Amino acid sequence: MNGEMPSKVTANDMLALVTKKFPQHMRERIVTSIDDSLNDLYLPIETFSQIFESLIKNAFEASPADGTVQVSMGREEI
Q1: Spatial distance between the Cα atoms of 45 and 42, rounded to a whole number of angstroms
Q2: Residues 6+ away with beta carbon under 8 Å from 7
């Protein structure tokens, strides 16, 4: 980690930040589902952006050329 301080961001804004890094033809294949309870997140935005970008990129690489990538964000009790 680079010591980035957590900042407030919504889940929708976080995903928008990440998906805009992909070309349009790939963005059209990203299907998102966000739990309504994820209003405000406090996290190191750039660090998590890089993590999500890598995960989505890996999903595309493992998917058929015309396949979609499902991105879901929600709460899970642990």
Answers
A1: 8
A2: 42, 43, 44, 45
